[in-house]
Amino acid sequence: MSLWNRKSWLFCGSDRGGQRAAILYSLIVTAKMNGLDPQVWLADVLARIAGHPTQRIDELLPWNWRAGAAPARAA
User: Running DSSP on this structure, what letter comes out for residue 40?
Assistant: First the structure.
């Protein structure tokens, strides 16, 4: 991380804002490390998560995610 990036984290607004920024940064980096476009992955997960079965939430993690995979109906 460059010096500029480290200094920019000083201006998150609050501790909670800094924590949220760190979470988002972690999600983005994890998606990149798994060969995904973070914007595509995150947009798809946010669109699907409300109707996704909680017992299969691991399918939405970057290392298990498949684009456009429709969640199966819970029986």
Answer: H
